[in-house]
TrEMBL record:
Belongs to the peptidase S41A family. Residues 1-30 form the signal peptide. The lineage of its organism: Bacteria, Pseudomonadati, Pseudomonadota, Betaproteobacteria, Neisseriales. It comes from Aquitalea magnusonii. Residues 431-451 have a biased composition (Basic and acidic residues). The keyword Hydrolase applies. This is Carboxyl-terminal protease.
Length: 475
């Protein structure tokens, strides 16, 4: 893959991040065929523009009118296309390194409202008590209804140390909740790892960032060294991972798949939007840099693998889960994923900023579209800490207004209470008991890997141990 083509690999994520890590895909308009403008509709636009300028109760700046028209044109397409002014475009560039200013909330749009998909770990939002499914009513004194995602993000960002007040509606509460949160420089830890017990490792990916692939390789190498021998099994935790760089999703998949195995392919209207990405360094490495998986222990390609997913696993997370499931490389455990199967390209507009435009749908190696459906795990295990009310608040792609249709006609109904089950492979429903008390559990970090507190993790670990027994019996 050439460097020019690498620039066209788009960022995938469940929604906009409030001070979040976004990454760029650059596509130029040069060489594209000219588009014929609809003159009658443009006359109507000009007439409305003139009426506003002449008759609106207050004078309106031309730039504001044009900017709002552009925003409306994009936001009306789907939940993920949007316009970014110069400041927002600059902030997006700064987010590619996994360090940014803000609160640390991943948000999505629905019916003119802003919902929290998930708070990012170890950030002011998570520590303040913001939860997945919360509805943001006001940012300081500004009502959120009608704001675009970019506008909401812009208002929640600010100078580190400054405060912002969020008014939240939560279904389990009768009155709105008010959170005064201090902004901070958010340094997200893309990869976290731990040796759960001798022979069994755990890796959690919080977001797919620029250095995620190499950080994953280093984490597995470190655990292998700590274990003093190859791992017997590995848990890859993608729960509540909203996505990120497509290249990193390919790299993470390549860590476990045979060389040149198909990871994902995309289909769109233009030649640029049609890609087949395989487990090859040219598809996930940075130009001029060594293969980020070069430090990965060779045994990793064959180590028994369990992948944890849930309704917050979106986009790049779903690419990894789908590829590993299609190649029968891992057992997926958890609940149905978010269902974002579209590709967004970031198109610069010079000094005017840029647009985030949906340009393609992606498909798993077997040809499945995840759009508005998601990935159904091989073993369905409910989170024991999630109540029925929490499940009702969970936002998925199929719930978002103007979401793209699934091209295979395989879309789940909006607000589905339970994950649907495909005919194959069979899905086993597990009933989750209440988590056990553990003095080592951290209330501020509920994702600290602890099988005694985390029923989904404990079931994943049990599956690995059963696989190890079967391997020994086979020998």
């Amino acid at each position: 893959m050439t460097s020019h083509r690498m620039k066209k690999i788009a960022w995938l994520a469940a929604g906009a991040l409030a001070g979040g890590a976004l990454t760029l895909s650059v596509q130029a308009f040069a060489g594209k065929e000219p588009t014929t403008l609809p003159l009658n509709e443009l006359r109507t636009f000009a007439e409305v523009f003139g009426r506003i300028k002449q008759d609106y109760v207050d004078p309106v700046d031309d730039k504001k009118l044009i900017t709002e028209a552009i925003k409306g044109m994009l936001s009306g397409l789907d939940p993920h296309s949007d316009y970014m002014d110069a400041d927002a475009f600059k902030e997006l560039r700064e987010g590619t390194q996994g360090e940014f200013g803000g609160l640390g909330i991943e948000i999505g749009a629905e019916d003119g409202l802003v919902k929290v998909v998930s708070p990012i770990e170890d950030t002011p939002a998570q520590k303040a008590g913001i939860k997945s499914g919360d509805l943001i009513i006001k940012i300081d004194d500004t009502p959120v209804r009608g704001l675009s995602l970019n506008d909401a993000v812009k208002r929640m960002r600010g100078k580190p140390g400054s405060k912002v007040t969020l008014t939240i509606a939560r279904k389990s509460e009768t009155k709105p909740l008010v959170f005064a949160i201090t902004r901070a420089i958010i340094k997200t830890k893309s990869v976290k790892s731990k040796l759960l017990e001798p022979g069994y490792g755990y890796v959690r990916i919080t977001q797919f960032q620029e250095h995620t692939t190499e950080n994953l390789a280093e984490a597995i190498a470190s655990m292998t060294k700590q274990n003093k021998q190859p791992l017997k099994g590995l848990v890859l935790d993608l729960r509540d991972d909203p996505g990120g760089l497509l290249t990193s999703a390919v790299g993470v998949s390549a860590a476990f798949l045979p060389k040149d195995a198909l990871v994902v392919y995309t289909e769109g209207r233009t030649a640029d939007a049609k890609m087949k990405l395989t487990a090859s360094a040219q598809n996930y490495g940075r130009p001029g840099m060594p293969d980020p998986l070069s430090v990965l222990p060779q045994e990793t390609h064959k180590v028994p693998l369990v992948v944890l997913v849930n309704g917050g696993s979106a986009s790049a997370s779903e690419i990894v889960a789908g590829a590993l499931q299609d190649h029968k490389r891992a057992v997926l455990v958890g609940t149905q994923t978010f269902g974002k199967g579209s590709v967004q390209s970031i198109l610069p507009l010079g000094s005017a900023g840029g647009i985030k435009l949906t340009t393609a749908r992606y498909f798993t190696p077997s040809g499945r579209s995840i759009q508005a459906k998601g990935i159904v795990p091989d073993v369905v295990v409910e989170d024991a800490t999630v109540t029925a009310a929490d499940q009702a608040l969970r936002v998925r792609e199929a719930d978002l207004e103007n979401h793209l249709a699934n091209p295979n006609g395989d879309e789940v109904p909006s607000k589905a209470a339970k994950p649907t089950k495909p005919a194959t492979p069979p899905v086993i429903k597990q009933e989750a008991p209440k988590p056990q008390d553990d003095k080592n559990a951290s209330p501020e970090n509920p994702r600290e890997p602890n099988p005694k507190q985390d029923y989904q993790l404990s079931q994943g670990l049990n599956i690995l141990k059963v696989q190890q027994i079967l391997i020994k019996q086979g020998n």
